[in-house]
Amino acid sequence: MNLHEYQGKSILKSFGVAIQESVVIDAVEDAVSKAKELTEQTGTEWYVVKAQIHAGGRGKGVVEETGSHGVVLAKGIDKVEEVVKGILGGHLETAQTNGVGKKVNKVMIAEDVYYPGESEPSEIYMSVLMDRDKGRNVIMYSTEGGMDIETVAEKTPELIFKEEIDPRVGLQGFQARKIAFNLGLSGKAFKEMTKFVSALYASYEGCDASMFEINPVLKTSDNKVIAVDAKVTLDDTALFRHKEYAEMRDKTEEDPAEVEADEAGLNFVKLDGNVGCMVNGAGLAMATMDIIKQSGGNPANFLDVGGTADAARVEKAFEIILKDDNVKAILINIFGGIVRCDRVAQGIVDAYKNMGGIPVPLIVRLQGTNAEEAKTLIDESGLDVQSAVLLQEAADKVKSILS
Q1: What does the record note about the cofactor (predicted)?
Q2: Which of 5, 104, 208, 350 is positioned for an S-S bond with 311, CB 3.0–4.6 A?
């Protein structure tokens, strides 16, 4: 589950991570009063206004309606409302929104932390994530903060450092100090960074995150170390342990079809292809998508109906798949282990009749318990449904439909 920046920062702060203080608003008329509250809290006189959407590159992104960027510095309280008007309620298009602007329902007004002082501020990249090949959490960091880490990795890979964490002992003090040393810090900044790293890792583990990305971590001109940004992804399967985090989910930032599927108990991910998939089991879904690709098609979705495939569930799955106008055919591939194939077949027939037909070709492959009875049910239903026994046979039927 992805979080907004302000939500991620609230989690960081709860674990003792120093952050750029801010307020969040969803109405223009609240801009000035909330900015004044921030001034009372921090003393700031300039304000960073940041669009809150689930996408990176907001600073370079452009609001379609106004031409404003997604991150703008308001140089004074008298500029705040004007800047907020240019962002809030508009559609922000960034490099990560696939050419479609995302509506900005909230903006964050943050304190200005790039103030003059005894030294120059510097930006650092830092993230915590799982290295699945090694089965260990990794802290990745670089002196080249504020930039796309992909660009840094491509052009100057020697500037990216990684610190592996042994799960048996967790983050050790010497590792936090090593990170601060590799970043070229000393004195107060060195001590601040070691505390920052320790608190950041504690927050990552404590909230069952799958990724924390702070870009940038800022060493201020007076040698404080704070999180200026926060991209946080939580592990969905661990949310039962964190009810307060589960309530942070913003469904307006998600694909409507995926939200509908989730509410119906279906595992669904929308893709960009032309063949709809309905399967049971993640492994079978991956194999089905591979065979569709090999047959010359492209999967339009990942949809796992799970161990129950009655008429109501199948009908809902059909409805969700068919909301995609790019779908030219649907392949149902079910292995009857827990659920009997004939029960699934009856569910398909009932759903087909309830919907008054399916407007695209439908190919059904059922294998496992009572597979023969299921095939007979499909073949004798009188419906415009093609049945298959082998997966390759199903793929060939998809190929003939698309060609």
Answers
A1: Binds 1 Mg(2+) ion per subunit.
A2: 350
Q: Are 300 and 273 in contact (CB under 8 A)?
A: yes
Task: State yes or no: is 6 an active-site residue.
Answer: no
Is 50 annotated in a binding site? The answer is: yes
Residues 6+ apart with CB under 8 A from 221: 114, 115, 116, 117, 118, 119, 120, 121
Report the CATH number of the 256-402 domain: 3.40.50.261
Q: Is 103 helix (H, G, I), strand (E, B) or coil?
A: strand
Please identify which of the residues 5, 111, 144, 213 carries the catalytic annotation: 213
Cβ contacts of residue 30 below 8 Å, gap of 6+? none
Residue 320 labelled as part of a binding site: no
Residue 280 assigned ligand-binding role: yes
CA distances from 336 to 366, 373, 393 (A): 7, 12, 18
- Global pTM reads 0.83
Which residues contact residue 356 at a Cβ distance below 8 angstroms, ignoring those fewer than 6 apart?
none
Residue 47 is a catalytic residue: no
28 touches 235 (CB < 8 A): no
R_g of the chain computed on alpha carbons: 26
The CATH code of the domain at 122-246 is 3.30.470.20
pLDDT, tens digit, 9 for 90 and up, residues 318-349: 899 998 989 999 999 888 777 788 888 888 88
Question: What angle, 0 to 180 degrees and rounded to 10, lies between the N-to-C axes of helices 341-354 and 311-321?
Answer: 60
pLDDT, tens digit, for every residue of 59-78?
A: 999 999 999 999 999 999 99
> Which own/partner contact pairs does 256-261 have at CB distance under 8 Å and 24+ positions apart?
257/320, 257/323, 257/324, 260/320, 261/303, 261/316, 261/317, 261/320
Q: Is 103 annotated as a binding residue?
A: no
113 is in an annotated binding site: yes
The domain spans of the chain are 21-111, 122-246, 256-402
Return the SS3 of 47.
strand
To the question of whether residue 145 is assigned a binding role by annotation, the answer is no
Q: Which amino acid is at 311?
A: A
What is the architecture of the domain spanning 21-111?
Answer: 2-Layer Sandwich (3.30)
281 is in an annotated binding site: no
